[in-house]
Structures are given as structure tokens and as C-alpha cells.
């Protein structure tokens, strides 16, 4: 019976959670990305549209349309665990793309037209740092650091495998004359082994003497192996087995070329070497990248593109793209030339641009893609500025003086303004309606209703004025990326409203705990103070001096307000809860590694103290710091080892958002008593895992006093561990080795007494009379978890939902009612009346609860939730390989009319009724009169 | 003799389980420090520890605290099971004075390891007397003490020991058991329901009967009426 009720309840709830077919894409959007390319191949076909095939730093293979830049198809391959390992390498022929991925372990063949996997083969169990692949008309040759494998193109098993000796650190193929050669450099070896590779046989044909120190500085150019070292260049001729040294008198930064020419780039010039390594030309100037195509050499710098003839070095075409301040230096360029030159420029900011150069005429940027959005570090959602009428209303109530006449005049002015705006808007709408009427020849009633509806929706659309809407649902999403680009996105459709690059010397900050790179983003002044512009800041370090830099900007326009260089490295940075009275700015507090404390912006009158958690990662000593804000002194107030041993690795430390709202203080029990939540704003959760003993420990510690409110551990647990810390609870996920499954746990804290012990403010220095009651529960979750987050609403009244990003590309919304520590084992009749759900060991996964329905998003790294103006609604942005934004209503749309609510029909019926009743009244009176006369 | 030996070994186990934490306090960030006392932790039969605080019996503890009433009161702890490690905790001298020198030591342990120790003023005493919970905006205000506060005497205190718990695992066993139980109960219930057919389904039969009765009651009249015409 209970199960039946449970199922019924579930179907009811999930039915209300799911969206209808016509709501697809209405409240949500998705942005698909491919990542920062490290290799681009032009794929020109006779029929169909031209494409470019990219392999990217994020190990994604994709095909983009050359004309529009849209993704034709995309295959997400295994991500490298070590960034120094080789990315996906690929080669292609007429119909197929051949790749080595998964750190040199798998060979996969994809069909070019649609990216369908044709076949795959596991080359090796172990990972390999290097890999290369080459094809002939019938065969595929693959190498990694251990072997060379030979395949036939249409068979998915190798026809021959040749094992390489140990210690290979370089292995590449060279297409030389009519044979394929393989070059191998081993560790501590003075020679390069050349193997001739054919389907029948692999044998060492010769070895070239020569000491190669730095294999990163070796390239296969044409049929030669070219290595460089400061200003000297060594060219190993593979065919003859000879080597030749030349001095270029330049500090070489990049080499490249084809079978005829060798291009050497230095900081100040580019040299072209022709046959027999004779210098053809020298082009002076600072260029960042070059590419060869037919007889052209294309050079690109920050603001300039130059096309040079390879034969003589003459400049054929030169163009300035834009003012060089706004442009970013290119990282790589790829060119293809038929009649015009098509150039793909990949900037240092991971922006892909397609430029068509008509020699002698012009260069046009055809399209661009912002691929740095794949590496988002931090997200904030900012309210849009108040609209004019809202500002007027704010002004009216802002006034301090209470002169009746002036207040009256002000009121009249405001209302005239409102009428004026209303009139303008209605006229605009009327025009829109007439426009739709004139464009459509259908004149049925349904057409009329449809057009009215459409015009109503366009007034709420993306092209409207950039101001806050009625329910504050449209926001501006600020995003900081690890490539050093800050974006402002419109939450209505995901359009990029503004962007800026943080500069050449950008380097993200590194977290000491997780070792991850971060680019922290803080909103210092929201748009709530409408007289003042908002202010947001990002903090990063200079890659050269490693000093901290703070860039603050206006979040609405993306205008940079200031750029301040700090005098030292940054240790910690945090937003102060204190506010500067005159500017309404929350200052940043910056702890430097030299012990200095800085505020940004500088604040004069600051009082009180700030407590911080300090973790010495190596010694596993955790302590509390008290920072006297006025005197800028740091004092250790508590320290302990938190029971962490040397093998324990702290995975994550999470406090609570300082502006989180908790609406209800307690939870009503079934016996009508209230159990009060233990809401300690100073509580931080620490999760640590011991990989040797497989013990996961979760510690809840009060940062101010150092009191461990609760600590618990579980054996046979492994990562990935994710957790969210909110209100009075902590939800976590881990892999259970014992059950071989993912499990979700929840810890809830309640006051042990009947009344809240600390009513107004929480004071960590005074303990609660009794230790808080800890309630815990765990559930089986039949899916992996990649990221975890929790919904946020305006007042914190709506039941929260936990958002789980799954490896399959879905985001699962689990209500807190289900992931709850207080679900009873025995459900009595009274509990059933209260809709309490009994304990079931598994969290059900229903497809209706996937907030991104069929819009899969991969490799989710984080989910950001922000409140909208409506209490029921939470705005959610999930980011990873793709971006996905949607509105979430964790408890249903209780304060919103249904999407299909027919305003027009209802108003029509109402007016018809009123008119009808009036007519009927007249009619009745006339009838009555007539009856009396008769 | 055997019995005696057993007792001896048992007692040594008992004593080995004993565990002390030495405390010293300072009112000037450990420029000078004095002993505060020791916390003795003793293992219960159920494996948990209970702690008791033995004061150093320093007579002018209260007076020292009163002299430095606006200062930070720091306590340093050394556990006998973790040589070389120091644990630090601080409170405010004023809070201790308000709670009549009564301490609450919150000791958090993991097996025989001390995780952290936190010194609190006694919650009952301090909570009653705090009219103005410490305002973070005005921390420079000097310590206000009630008129009846005690400044003489040695420190006293209680110890709360919290040990590291165990995180739960999904409770499949009891759930399956409950489902089984329910199933069994249902089967039993179905078998046990040996009421008569009428007693069980009267609610379905009654309307049918009523309908038949009513239609019978109406129809004869109609027939009669028809006959008259």
C-alpha cells in the first residue's frame, strides 16, 4: 500500500515537474562548445558544405561548418588525466577520420560526413604520453611509446604489431618519398632510430647520430626532423641519415614548414629557408603565429595579418583587423587557399575566428566562436538595472522630506511618466500587431489570437530594453574563464553582451586545497543601488611576476573601472560582509603570502573582525584565524588536527553562502511539535578521503570557535566526492566500494531543545545548551555524480532541490523532501496525511525529473543557482563542455499562472458576458414594456 | 591466582585506556602561561569516553581574569596520546567571568586521538546574563559584568566528549524486511477476512437493491396510469 501511494505521489509530482513539448527551449537554452583547438584540418568537399575538422585541448573531435562556424557534429573523447600527455591526434582521408585518443590507448575511426564511429580498437591497456597516426591508401599506422601497430583500413584488428624498446620519448611518422618511416628517440640515447614501416615488416633501417635534448622543440617538417635550441637549428635528413646544423642568429620560438620550405619564427622576425636550407627571405616584425598554404606564408600578429610570397618573401597583402588594443594575440593560425585564403585564427583567449582574405582587396571576419566558455571558473548572476518607471517609484519613496505639496507633485509626475510609458508601449504593440496582420493573409479568429499572443511575447523578448523585468527573471550572467576572458551573458538567450580579455600576462590563481586553477569573481556592488553602477571584480595573478591583480568592472556594460596591481602574491581573497557606507561597495580582503592584509577598494572606517579557516595542507593542521579589520592583524584563535592523518586528503571545504536566506526556523513534527534547525552561519564542512584505508571523513566545524559540531566517517568509500552545504544540512555523494555503487548521504542538524537557543543572532562563542541533534541517512543512487548543487530562491521558502549532474549528460533534480534524513521507516496514517514519504533505500531516477530533458550537457563541472524575483523560481546555469540555463521551480509554479493560461480568451469571454448582460437587460426591459402595452 | 592475574590484566587495560589532556591558559597570547588543570578521559563500558576536569586549584584565577577582562583567554592543550601536538582554543575572559569561571570543554575525539578542544563559558550561566549579545559592529566595548559575579576561586568546568561517528549506509536490509513483513501481513489479512459475503460487500449490494426497490415502486404506478388511459 505504501509503495502504491509512493508511486502515485511520484507520478503526480514528476508530472508537474516535467515540461511540455511546446515549452522546449522557451525557458532554457543550451550552448554547445568544442574547446580550444590544437589542430585544424580543412575539409573541402565537392558536394555539400565545406568544413573544418578540429581536435581540441579538451579532447573533443568536431566538425564545424566553414561558412557559418556551426557545429556539424562533435564527439567527446576521454579527457586526458595529465595535461602533458598528447592530446587526440588524428589524420583523415576522403571519407574517414582516424584518431588516437584516451592517452594513446584507443584507435577510433569516424565517418567524416556525420561523425559516426566506424570502428575502434583498444591498442594498449597502459597509458602512453605520446602517440602518432598516419595513413596510406590502404593502411593505418599507429604508434605510441611502446609499439607500432599496423591496420588495414576496413578491418578493426591490427595486421601487425611491432614492439618498441623501452624508454621511448619521441615516436613519429614521416611520409618520405613512397614509404612511411618512423622516428624514435629514446631516453639517454645519442641517436635517432629510423624504422621503415610497411604492412609486411617493421625494421630499423638506419640511425642518425645526434643528441636531442628537448624533444618538445622538435618538429617534423616535410621529410625532415628539425630540432631547435636557442638560436641553432638541427635538420636531420631521414632519407640520407645525415644531419646539418645552422645558426639563425635569432632566438627561435617556433618552426614549421612543408617539404620545400622551412619557416623559423623568433620574437622579432620570421625567416624563410628554401631548398638546401638557404635563406630565402627575412621578414621583420613581431608575429605570433604563421601558416603555410600553397605559395603563401600567412603571418599574424595582434592586429595585423600579412600574406607573404614563399618564393621571395614579398608582401602580397597586409591588413589591420581592428585596433590592436581590443584584439588578442593569436595562438595558432591555419590557412587554406584556393582562390581566396581562408584563415582560422585561434587567439590566446580561445576565440576561433574565420577570416577570408581576398588578396589585394580585403579581409573579412566571417564568424567567430568563443571557446573559452568551456573553461568557466566562476559564475555570478546580477540583476538588470531598474527600469525608468521603477526608478521613479524608488525615487518617490527614497525622499526623506515630507512636504505634502512636493510629495503630491512628485506623485503626479511619476504617474504621468507611467502613463506616457504605457502609451508608448501600447502604440508599439499595436504597430507590431498590425504588422503581423499585414504580413499574414489568414484572417481567422485563431490567427488573431495567435498574433496577439505573439506580440505579447515579443514585448518580453530579447530585443526589449535592457532593464529589469517585472519578476526579475532576466538576469545578466557574469562568467570568468580560465583563459582569462570575462563574459557578460544575457540569461534570456545566452547571447554574449560583452567580453573582455584580462591581458597577456594573465595566469589564474591556484587553490591550495584542490590544486585547481581558479579565477575568482566577486560582485561587490549589486545593481540594487540604482543611482550607482554595479561593480564586480576578478582576481588573478601576473604570470611573470606572480603578483596579484584585481580588475573591477561594471557588470552590466563590461566597462573596466580599474586595474590594480598588488605588491605581492595572493594567499587568500574573500568578500567582506561589511559595506562601505558611502559607496555601498563590499570591499575585498586580500591576504598576501607575505602576511600583509589589503582591502580593495581601500576602506577607512572598518570595525569588527573576520574569522577565517586556515588549512596547512601538508601537516593536516586546521586552524581558525581572527583578522582584526581595523588594525589589520591576524591572530590564530584555535588549531587542531581535526583527526586528519597524514594520508587523509582534504577534498573540499565549503561554508555557507553568507547571504543565504533560511525562511523557516524549524520543522513541524508529526506530533505538532517544532524541531528547530541548528543554523550556524559559521559552520564549514570539510570532506577528506584516505585513499589507502578508503575512509571518507566529513567534519562540520565552527570556524569561529573551532568546535567540531559533528564528525563522522565511513569505510570502503572512494571518490569522486561531491557535497553541498546549505541551511542546516549537508548532502554528499561518494562511491561505495562495498556496494559498488554511488551513494548519497545527508546530514541534518537540529537543536536539541524545544526552543531555539539563540533567537536573534547566532553566537559561536557561547555553546548551545546541549549538543545539536544529528540526523543522518544514506540512499543508493543508481548513477554517477559529476557535480552537485542546490537551488536558491528569493526568500528560501520553497523546498530546495538538489541538482545532480550525471555522467550521461543529464541534470537530475532531487527534491530535498526525498533526499531527507528524517524519512520515517514506518509511515503511520497521520504521517500519510501529512504527505511524509517513508524511507526507501534508493533515490528513484525518473526521466521527467531531468531538468535538461533531452538537451544533454557533458562533463558538467559546476552548477550555479541564483534566485529570481519570484519565490517559486530559481535560475540555474550548468557549465562544463556545454552551457545550459533553465528556470527551476522546485515546488512547482505556485505563484505563476500556467504557461498556457489563455488571457485573451478569458478577457474576451468576460467582455462578451458584460456586453451580453447589458444587451440582455435592455432587451428584457423593452420586452417588459412591450408586454405591458399589449 | 589465575583470577587475580585476570583482574590485573583487566585493570591495566582499564588504566591504559585512561588518557589525559594537560591544559594551560594565558591571557596575553602565551607570553606567560599558567597551568589550568587536566582533563581525564576514561573509557566507558560502551567504548565511549567520558571526561572530567581537574582544576589546578589556582586561587587567584578569577582575579587574574578580572584584571584582563577585555583580553583573549587562550587555552593550550597537550594530549598524552599525541606527543608533540598542541591544540589551541580561545574565548573571551569576559565571557568566563560572566559564567562565574565555569568552563565547558568541548572535546572532540577520534578513537584515542584528540581532534580539537574548544573552551566555552558555561551556557546556562552565560546565556542568562547576556542582555546584549556581542555586537560585531562594536567590539571595542568594554566588558560589562553583572553585580553578583564571582571573581574569587579556582576554575571549574565540565567536559563534553564528542566522538567521531559513523556515516550511514543505505538501509536495504530493514527495508526488504519491512516489505516482506507487509506482504505477510497482507496475506494473513486476506486469509483472516472470513466475514460473510454480505458483511464484506454490503456497500455494493445496497445501492443495487435500493435501485431495484425504487424502480419497482415507481413502475406499478406507471402501469396503472397506462391502464387507466
TrEMBL record, chain A:
Keywords, in A-Z order: Endoplasmic reticulum, Glycoprotein, Membrane, Signal, Transmembrane, Transmembrane helix
Assembly mode: Component of the ER membrane protein complex (EMC).
InterPro entries, alphabetized: Beta-prop_EMC1_1st, EMC1, EMC1_C, Quinoprotein_ADH-like_sf, WD40/YVTN_repeat-like_dom_sf
One cellular component term from this protein's GO annotations in UniProt: EMC complex
BP GO annotations: protein folding in endoplasmic reticulum
Localization terms from the record: Endoplasmic reticulum membrane
Pfam families cross-referenced by the UniProt entry: Beta-prop_EMC1_N, EMC1_C
Signal sequence interval, chain numbering: 1-18
Classification via SUPFAM superfamilies: Quinoprotein alcohol dehydrogenase-like (SSF50998)
Name this protein carries in UniProt: ER membrane protein complex subunit 1
Domain EMC1 first beta-propeller per the UniProt entry, residue ranges: 18-280
Membrane topology, record value: Single-pass type I membrane protein
High-level lineage: Eukaryota, Metazoa, Ecdysozoa, Nematoda, Chromadorea
TrEMBL record, chain B:
Residues passing through the membrane, by range: none
Ranges of compositional bias, category Polar residues: 137-163
Region (Disordered), start-end ranges: 127-165
Swiss-Prot/TrEMBL keywords: Endoplasmic reticulum, Membrane, Signal, Transmembrane, Transmembrane helix
Highest taxon, organism lineage: Eukaryota
A cellular component term, taken from the record's GO annotations: EMC complex
Signal sequence coordinates: 1-16
Topology in the lipid bilayer: Single-pass type I membrane protein
Location(s) in or outside the cell: Endoplasmic reticulum membrane
Glycoprotein listed as a keyword: no
Family: Belongs to the EMC10 family.
Protein name: ER membrane protein complex subunit 10
Amino acid at each position: 500500500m505504501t509503495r502504491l501511494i509512493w508511486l502515485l505521489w511520484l507520478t503526480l509530482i514528476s508530472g508537474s515537474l516535467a515540461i511540455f513539448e511546446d515549452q522546449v527551449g522557451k525557458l532554457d537554452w543550451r550552448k554547445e562548445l568544442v574547446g580550444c583547438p590544437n589542430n585544424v584540418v580543412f575539409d573541402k568537399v565537392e558536394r555539400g558544405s565545406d568544413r573544418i575538422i578540429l581536435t581540441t585541448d579538451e579532447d573533443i573531435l568536431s566538425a564545424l561548418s566553414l561558412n557559418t562556424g556551426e557545429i556539424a557534429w562533435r564527439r567527446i573523447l576521454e579527457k586526458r588525466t595529465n595535461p602533458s600527455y598528447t592530446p587526440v591526434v588524428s589524420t583523415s582521408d576522403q571519407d574517414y577520420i582516424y584518431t588516437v585518443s584516451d592517452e594513446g590507448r584507443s584507435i577510433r575511426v569516424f565517418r567524416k560526413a556525420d561523425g559516426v564511429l566506424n570502428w575502434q580498437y583498444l591498442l594498449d591497456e597502459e597509458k602512453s604520453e605520446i602517440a602518432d597516426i598516419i595513413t596510406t591508401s590502404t593502411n593505418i599506422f599507429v604508434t605510441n611509446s611502446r609499439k607500432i601497430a599496423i591496420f588495414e583500413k576496413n578491418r578493426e584488428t591490427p595486421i601487425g604489431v611491432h614492439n618498441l624498446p623501452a624508454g621511448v620519448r619521441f615516436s613519429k611518422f614521416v611520409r618520405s618519398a613512397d614509404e612511411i618511416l618512423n622516428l624514435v628517440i629514446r631516453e639517454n640515447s645519442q641517436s635517432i632510430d629510423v624504422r621503415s614501416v610497411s604492412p609486411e615488416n617493421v625494421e630499423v633501417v638506419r640511425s642518425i647520430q645526434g643528441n636531442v635534448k628537448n624533444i618538445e622543440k622538435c618538429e617534423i617538417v616535410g621529410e625532415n626532423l628539425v630540432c631547435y635550441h636557442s638560436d641553432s637549428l638541427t635538420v636531420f635528413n631521414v632519407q640520407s641519415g645525415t644531419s646539418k646544423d645552422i645558426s639563425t642568429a635569432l632566438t627561435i620560438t617556433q618552426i614549421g614548414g612543408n617539404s620545400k620550405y622551412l619557416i623559423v619564427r623568433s620574437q622579432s622576425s620570421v625567416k624563410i629557408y628554401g631548398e638546401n636550407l638557404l635563406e630565402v627571405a627575412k621578414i621583420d616584425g613581431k608575429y605570433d603565429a604563421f601558416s603555410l598554404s600553397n605559395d603563401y606564408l600567412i603571418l599574424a600578429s595582434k592586429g595585423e595579418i600579412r600574406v607573404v610570397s614563399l618564393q621571395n618573401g614579398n608582401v602580397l597583402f597586409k591588413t589591420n583587423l581592428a585596433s590592436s588594443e581590443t584584439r588578442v594575440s593569436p595562438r595558432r593560425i591555419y590557412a587554406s587557399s584556393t582562390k581566396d585564403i581562408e584563415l582560422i585564427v585561434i587567439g590566446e583567449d580561445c576565440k576561433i575566428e574565420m577570416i577570408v582574405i581576398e588578396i589585394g582587396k580585403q579581409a573579412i571576419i566571417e564568424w567567430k566562436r568563443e571557446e573559452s566558455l568551456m573553461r568557466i571558473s566562476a559564475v555570478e548572476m546580477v540583476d538588470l538595472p531598474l527600469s525608468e518607471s521603477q526608478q521613479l517609484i524608488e525615487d518617490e519613496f527614497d525622499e526623506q522630506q515630507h512636504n505634502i505639496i512636493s510629495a503630491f507633485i512628485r506623485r503626479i509626475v511619476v504617474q504621468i511618466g507611467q502613463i506616457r510609458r504605457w502609451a508608448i508601449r501600447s502604440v508599439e504593440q499595436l504597430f507590431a500587431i498590425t504588422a503581423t496582420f499585414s504580413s499574414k493573409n489568414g484572417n481567422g479568429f485563431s490567427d488573431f489570437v495567435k498574433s496577439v499572443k505573439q506580440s505579447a511575447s515579443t514585448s518580453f523578448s530579447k530585443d526589449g530594453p535592457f532593464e529589469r523585468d517585472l519578476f526579475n527573471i532576466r538576469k545578466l550572467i557574469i562568467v570568468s574563464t580560465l583563459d582569462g576572458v570575462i563574459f557578460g551573458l544575457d540569461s534570456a538567450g545566452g547571447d554574449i553582451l560583452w567580453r573582455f580579455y584580462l591581458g597577456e600576462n594573465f595566469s589564474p590563481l591556484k587553490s591550495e586545497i584542490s590544486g585547481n586553477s581558479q579565477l575568482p569573481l566577486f560582485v561587490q556592488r549589486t545593481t540594487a543601488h540604482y543611482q550607482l553602477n554595479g561593480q564586480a571584480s576578478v582576481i588573478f595573478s601576473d604570470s611573470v611576476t606572480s603578483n596579484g591583480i584585481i580588475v573591477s568592472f561594471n557588470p552590466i556594460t563590461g566597462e573596466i573601472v580599474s586595474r590594480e596591481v598588488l605588491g605581492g602574491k595572493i594567499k587568500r581573497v574573500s568578500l567582506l560582509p561589511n559595506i562601505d557606507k558611502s559607496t555601498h561597495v563590499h570591499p575585498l580582503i586580500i591576504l598576501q603570502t607575505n602576511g600583509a592584509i589589503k582591502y580593495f577598494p581601500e576602506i577607512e572606517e572598518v570595525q569588527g573582525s573576520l574569522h577565517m579557516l586556515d588549512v596547512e595542507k601538508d601537516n593536516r593542521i586546521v586552524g581558525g584565524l581572527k583578522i582584526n579589520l581595523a588594525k589589520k592583524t591576524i591572530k590564530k584563535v584555535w588549531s587542531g588536527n581535526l583527526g586528519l592523518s597524514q594520508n587523509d586528503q582534504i577534498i573540499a571545504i565549503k561554508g555557507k553562502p553568507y547571504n543565504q536566506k533560511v525562511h523557516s526556523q524549524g520543522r513541524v513534527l508529526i506530533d505538532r511539535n517544532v524541531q528547530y534547525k541548528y543554523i550556524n552561519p559559521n559552520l564549514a564542512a570539510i570532506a577528506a578521503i584516505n585513499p589507502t584505508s578508503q575512509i571518507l571523513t566529513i567534519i562540520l566545524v565552527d570556524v569561529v570557535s573551532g568546535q567540531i559540531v559533528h564528525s563522522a566517517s565511513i569505510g570502503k568509500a572512494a571518490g569522486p566526492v561531491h557535497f553541498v552545504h546549505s541551511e542546516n544540512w549537508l548532502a554528499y555523494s561518494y562511491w561505495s566500494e562495498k556496494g559498488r555503487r554511488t551513494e548519497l548521504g545527508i546530514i541534518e542538524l537540529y537543536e536539541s531543545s524545544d526552543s531555539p537557543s539563540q533567537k536573534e543572532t547566532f553566537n559561536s562563542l557561547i555553546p548551545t545548551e546541549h549538543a545539536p541533534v544529528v540526523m543522518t541517512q544514506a540512499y543508493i543512487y543508481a548513477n554517477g555524480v559529476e557535480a552537485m548543487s542546490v537551488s536558491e530562491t528569493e526568500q528560501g521558502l520553497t523546498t530546495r532541490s538538489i541538482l545532480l549532474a550525471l555522467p550521461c549528460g543529464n541534470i537530475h533534480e532531487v527534491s530535498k523532501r526525498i533526499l531527507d534524513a528524517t524519512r520515517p521507516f514506518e509511515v503511520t496514517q497521520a504521517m500519510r496525511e501529512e504527505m511524509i514519504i517513508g524511507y526507501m533505500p534508493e533515490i528513484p531516477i525518473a526521466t521527467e525529473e531531468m531538468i535538461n530533458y533531452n538537451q544533454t550537457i557533458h562533463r558538467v563541472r559546476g552548477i550555479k543557482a541564483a534566485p529570481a524575483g519570484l519565490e517559486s523560481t530559481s535560475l540555474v546555469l550548468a557549465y562544463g563542455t556545454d552551457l545550459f540555463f533553465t528556470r527551476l521551480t522546485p515546488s512547482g509554479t505556485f505563484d505563476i499562472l500556467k504557461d498556457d493560461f489563455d488571457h485573451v480568451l478569458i478577457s474576451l469571454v468576460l467582455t462578451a458576458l458584460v456586453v451580453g448582460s447589458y444587451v440582455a437587460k435592455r432587451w428584457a426591459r423593452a420586452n417588459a414594456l412591450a408586454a405591458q402595452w399589449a | 591466582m589465575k583470577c587475580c592475574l585476570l583482574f590485573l590484566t583487566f585493570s591495566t587495560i582499564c588504566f591504559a585506556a585512561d588518557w589525559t589532556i594537560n591544559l594551560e591558559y594565558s591571557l596575553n597570547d602565551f607570553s606567560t602561561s599558567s597551568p589550568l588543570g587536566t582533563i581525564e578521559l576514561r573509557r566507558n563500558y560502551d567504548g565511549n569516553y567520558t571526561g572530567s576536569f581537574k582544576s589546578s586549584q589556582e586561587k587567584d584565577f578569577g582575579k587574574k581574569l578580572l584584571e584582563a577582562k577585555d583580553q583573549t583567554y587562550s587555552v593550550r592543550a597537550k594530549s598524552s596520546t599525541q606527543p608533540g601536538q598542541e591544540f589551541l582554543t580561545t574565548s573571551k575572559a569576559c565571557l568566563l567571568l560572566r559564567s562565574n569561571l565555569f568552563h565547558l570543554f568541548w572535546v572532540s575525539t577520534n578513537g584515542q586521538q584528540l581532534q580539537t578542544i574548544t573552551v566555552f563559558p558555561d551556557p546556562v550561566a552565560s546565556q542568562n546574563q547576556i542582555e546584549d549579545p556581542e555586537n560585531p559592529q562594536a567590539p571595542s566595548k568594554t566588558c560589562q559584568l553583572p553585580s553578583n559575579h564571582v571573581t574569587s576561586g579556582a576554575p571549574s568546568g565540565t567536559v563534553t566528549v564528542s566522538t567521531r561517528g559513523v556515516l550511514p549506509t543505505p538501509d536495504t536490509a530493514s527495508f526488504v524486511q519491512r516489505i516482506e513483513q507487509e506482504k505477510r501481513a497482507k496475506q494473513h489479512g486476506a486469509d483472516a477476512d472470513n466475514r460473510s459475503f454480505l458483511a464484506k460487500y454490503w456497500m455494493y449490494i445496497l445501492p443495487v437493491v435500493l435501485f431495484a426497490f425504487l424502480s419497482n415502486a415507481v413502475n406499478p404506478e406507471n402501469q396503472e396510469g397506462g391502464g387507466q388511459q
